[in-house]
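Archive maintenance. Older records in this collection stored only the sequence; we are now back-filling the structure field for every entry so that each record is complete. The fields below show one back-filled record exactly as it appears after the update. Entries are processed alphabetically, and Major facilitator superfamily domain-containing protein is next in the queue.

ARCHIVE ENTRY
Title: Major facilitator superfamily domain-containing protein
Organism field: Paraphoma chrysanthemicola
Length field: 452
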Amino acid sequence: MTNTTTTTTLPPTMPLEKHTTMAPESILPKIPDVEENSELSKERSELPAEGGVQGWLCVLGAFLAIFCTFGFLNAIGVFQTYYATTTLSAYTPSDIAWIFAVQLALMWAPGPIFGRLIDTYGPAPVLYPCSLLCVFSLAMTSLADEYYQIFLAQGLGFGIGAGGCFSAAMVCTGQWFVRRRALATGVAVTGSSLGGVIFPIFFHRVMQSVGFDGAVRYTALLIALPLAASCFLIRARLPRKDWDWSVMWFDVTLFKESQFALFTVGAHFGMWVIFAPLIFLPGMAEQQGFSTELALYLLSIINATSIVGRTVLPYLADGWGVFNVISMSAGMSGVCMLALWLPFSYHPSHAGLIVFALAYGFFSGAFVSLLMPCVAKAGGIETLGRRFGTFQIVISMSNLTGPPILGAILHRQSDRDFSGLQIFSGVSSIVGCGFLVAATCSLARKQGSWKV
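Back-filled structure field:
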C-alpha cells in the first residue's frame, strides 16, 4: 500500500463508534507526524474549500443516514421492554437481548468488507440496497410474532442494513475534508444521538394511537424518507481502487504490542456493558412504578446528554490527550452505574434516575467517540489498517456477548432484581478503566510525555 492510498481516504480524528466500519485502507485519523506531509498538502490543494458545497451535502446525507441507523439502535430499550411484557414474554431477558446484540455487532463486524466495497465500487452498491434492507426489515418486524421472525427481521436484517449505511456515511464524509474532517464527521455523527432522542418519544406516542405493529410501520416510513435523501446526497470524492486481496483485516500478532493490547482489552470491558442502561433502564423504571412515558424519556435524556459528551470531552482531549480522557470517561461511566444507578434498586427516585441518565449519557458518549483516535495512537502507522480491522472485530464480539450476559444475570434474579446486572456493568466498566490507565502509562513512558 502506498503512502498516497493511506493519506487520501481516511476519516477524521473524532469518530464514534462509527469510524470503525471502514475498510482498513480507508481509515487514518489525524496523526501529527504525518499530518503535514507532502501527500496531505497535495490532497488539500486538490480539494474545494474544505469540501465545498458537495462536501457539506455529503455531510448532510451522512447525518440523515446515521440518524436512521445508529440513532434507531440507541432506542433499543423501547423494544426490549415491549417484547419482555408482550410478544416474547415467554422468553428470558437474555433470549430477547440476543436480538439487539446481533444488531449492535453487525454495526462493527462487516465494516471492513463494506468499506472495501465502497473503495472499489463507490457508495451506491452498498448504500442503496442497505437502505432498502433497513426499511424492509422494519416492515417485516411489524408482521412478526415469533421469536425467530423478529430475530431475522430486526436482528439480522436491520443490523446488516444499518451497518452498510453507516459505513458509506463515514467513509465518504472523510474523503471530502482534510483540516475540518473532525468538524464534518462530528456534525454527521450527531445524527446518532438525535435519533436516540427522537425515536423513543416518537415510537411511544404513535404506539398509543395505532398499537405496536402500526408504530413499527410508521417508524419504517420515518426512516425511509431520510435514507432516500441520503442516497442522493452521499457521494465519494476519491477515484475507485482495485480490490487488494493482500490487505489483512485481523492480525493476532498485534497483541504483542503492549499499548494496543491493553487498550483493546480495556475497550472490550467498557463496550461490553455500555448499552446496559439503554436496553434495561426503561423496563427497570416501569417495574418500580414509573410511568411508561417517563421510563422511555430516560432514553432520550441519555442520548441528549451524549451529544454534549461527544463534543466537550473530545475537545478537551486535544489538550489533555485522548488516552487520559477516555480512561476518565470509562471510570466515570462505571462510577455512575454503581453510585447513581445501583441505589435505585433499593430507593426508587425520579430525581435520582434522571441525574443518572444525565451523567451517564455525558460520560459514555465521550467514551465511544474517543475509541478510534486511541486505536490510531496505539501503534505505528505501518500497522494502522490492521489495528482498525482487528479492533472492530474484538468490539463486535463485545457487543454480541454483552447484552445476553446481562440478560442472563437478570433472569437468575427472577427478572425483577436488577442489582446484579448493575454491579456487573459498573465493575466491568471500572476494570476497563484500569486497563486503559495501564495502556496510558505504557504509552506515556514510551513517548516521554503524559499528554497521550
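Update note: Residues 99 and 148 are 9 Å apart (CA to CA). The two ends are 28 Å apart (CA to CA).
Entry marked complete.
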